[in-house]
Amino acid sequence: GQQLNQSPQSMFIQEGEDVSMNCTSSSIFNTWLWYKQDPGEGPVLLIALYKAGELTSNGRLTAQFGITRKDSFLNISASIPSDVGIYFCAGRDMDSNYQLIWGAGTKLIIKP
Amino acid sequence: GAGVSQSPSNKVTEKGKDVELRCDPISGHTALYWYRQSLGQGLEFLIYFQGNSAPDKSGLPSDRFSAERTGGSVSTLTIQRTQQEDSAVYLCASSRTSGIGSYEQYFGPGTRLTVT
Question: Less Cβ around it within 10 Å: N or C end of chain A?
Answer without folding.
Answer: N
